[in-house]
């Protein structure tokens, strides 16, 4: 556990973000390894089918991620206020809430999977493989939810290192199982999905066993759980906007996928591979934003506004430098990164085009996400939600629909930085108003 209310700001945020960044890089390797193994050993059609599944998966789990984030912020604020009793109640309430959500979403996703793909105009030749991969993957939603619960709890109390250790073990397991199931046993896309959910189970159960045996505060047991309606209300007030934001963003990604699908297998495969690289490249900005949210939560609970502003500036500096470095690497080596997924020249060329256009604007994404991290940590989650939805649904998706018939798939690629630019502008304006200072669960006389 880490107390962010005292000590050197820049080193605290960096030390907290670094293990989380490494951990999420390993978590992204789940998707990357799946795509590499599928693309190399099963072909571009299988790669496209797996890629078409990810926006659907994200849509179904996005709400869980958002609610988990709300609980994490509540935990961080109670921890900053030294209220350990409510920290424990928050953990128990989160376990019950997210467990129920995950079971419900699993059944919904599996029942409607084929209908969803048909709605997205997925080419018919890809439908059987995409449906098989998605249904197999969704059968492990409860395991994903479990580990997300553990990670959210640990982030709230300032521990970003413990989840990293189990993610490393899980990622190594995923790589081994991918090779065993797909290459050796020949289980196809189903084998890739099985490898992922088994690996998620390993990370979840290992973390629970370790914490129950070694941690002084955090314990996970199915008996004697204490459900607190007040804490649930606080978590939902903070987490629901983020949950709805994540969900509508995911639905937007499905809408974008529908446009991509209209261009056929090559563009779908290229978008799948390039998106895996893109997701990995954006991890620094996203993880520094999460670190800042935990930092802001504790310091707002302790009413230390000056430390919050200092944390914001230092996070922009660190995250921005990493984003610039990432942009240079991708522009120079994007073609070779695409070659990890496929040997098809057209797919490689299309993916390289996407990477060059989008990576050139990573710094805009970095500034936007850092500002959103501050606002979420303060509990002002409604504003990032509305800004993100406007940037996506009013800017990016319409631009993609307008430009795609004129410029082809390139029009879809250019819609990405357009959305980021509007999002950053709106976020910065709200930050400067200072209204976020009064959004915490703990009220102070004067901020």
Report the portion of residues in β strands.
under 5%
Low-confidence stretches: none
Order of helices and strands: HHHHHHHHHHHHHHH
Categorize the overall geometry: globular
Helix content: over 70%
Q: Structural class, from secondary structure content?
A: mainly alpha
Major pleated sheet: none
First-last Cα distance: 26 Å
Mean pLDDT: 87
Radius of gyration over C-alpha positions, nearest whole angstrom: 21 Å
Overall number of structural domains: 1
Extended strand count: 0
How many DSSP H or I helices? 15
Characterise this structure:
The protein is 83% helix and 0% strand. The chain has 447 residues and is an all-alpha fold. The protein has one domain (9-438). Helix 4 (127-138) packs parallel to helix 7 and helix 5 runs parallel beside helix 7. The mean pLDDT is 87.
Walk me through the topology.
Layout: H1 9-42, H2 44-80, H3 84-119, H4 127-138, H5 141-156, H6 162-184, H7 188-214, H8 229-261, H9 265-281, H10 283-301, H11 305-338, H12 345-359, H13 362-378, H14 382-407, H15 409-433
Helix pairs in contact: 1-2, 1-6, 1-7, 1-9, 1-10, 1-11, 2-3, 2-4, 2-5, 2-8, 2-9, 2-10, 3-4, 3-5, 3-8, 4-7, 5-7, 6-7, 8-14, 9-11, 9-12, 10-11, 10-13, 11-12, 11-13, 12-15, 13-15, 14-15
């Amino acid at each position: 556990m880490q107390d962010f209310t005292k000590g050197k700001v820049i080193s605290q945020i960096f030390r907290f973000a670094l293990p989380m960044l490494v951990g999420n890089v390993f978590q992204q390797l789940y998707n990357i390894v799946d795509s590499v193994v599928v693309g190399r050993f099963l072909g571009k059609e299988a790669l496209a089918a797996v890629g078409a599944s990810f926006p659907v998966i994200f849509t179904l789990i996005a709400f869980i991620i958002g609610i988990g984030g709300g609980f994490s912020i509540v935990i961080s604020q109670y921890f900053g206020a030294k209220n350990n009793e409510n920290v424990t109640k928050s953990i128990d309430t989160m376990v019950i809430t997210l467990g129920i959500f995950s079971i419900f979403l699993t059944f919904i996703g599996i029942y409607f999977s084929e209908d969803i793909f048909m709605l997205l105009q997925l080419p018919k030749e890809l439908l059987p493989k995409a449906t098989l991969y998605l249904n197999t993957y969704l059968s492990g939603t409860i395991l994903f939810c479990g580990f997300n619960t553990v990670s959210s709890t640990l982030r709230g109390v300032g521990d970003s290192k413990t989840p990293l250790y189990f993610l490393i073990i899980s990622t190594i397991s995923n790589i081994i199982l991918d090779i065993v199931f797909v290459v050796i046993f020949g289980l196809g896309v189903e084998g890739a999905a099985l490898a992922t959910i088994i690996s998620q189970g390993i990370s979840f159960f290992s973390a629970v066993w370790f914490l129950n045996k070694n941690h002084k505060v955090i314990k996970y047991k199915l008996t004697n759980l204490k459900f607190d309606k007040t804490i649930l209300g606080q978590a939902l007030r903070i987490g629901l906007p983020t949950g709805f934001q994540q969900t509508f963003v995911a639905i937007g990604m499905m809408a974008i996928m529908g446009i991509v699908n209209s261009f056929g297998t090559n563009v779908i495969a290229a978008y799948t591979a390039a998106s895996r690289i893109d997701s990995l490249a954006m991890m620094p900005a996203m993880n520094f934003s999460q670190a800042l949210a935990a930092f802001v939560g504790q310091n707002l609970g302790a009413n230390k506004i000056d430390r919050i502003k200092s944390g914001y500036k230092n996070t922009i500096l660190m995250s921005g430098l990493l984003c610039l470095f990432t942009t240079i690497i991708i522009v120079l080596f994007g073609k070779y990164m695409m070659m990890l997924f496929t040997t098809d020249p057209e797919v490689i060329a299309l993916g390289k085009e996407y990477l060059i256009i989008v990576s050139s604007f990573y710094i805009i994404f970095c500034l936007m996400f850092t500002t959103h991290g501050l606002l979420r940590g303060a509990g002002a989650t409604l504003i990032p939600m509305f800004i993100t939805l406007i940037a996506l649904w009013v800017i990016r998706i319409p631009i993609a629909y307008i430009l795609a018939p004129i410029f082809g798939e390139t029009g879809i690629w250019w819609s990405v930085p357009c959305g980021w630019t509007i999002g950053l502008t709106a976020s910065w304006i709200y930050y400067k108003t200072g209204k976020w200072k009064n959004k915490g669960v703990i009220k102070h006389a004067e901020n």
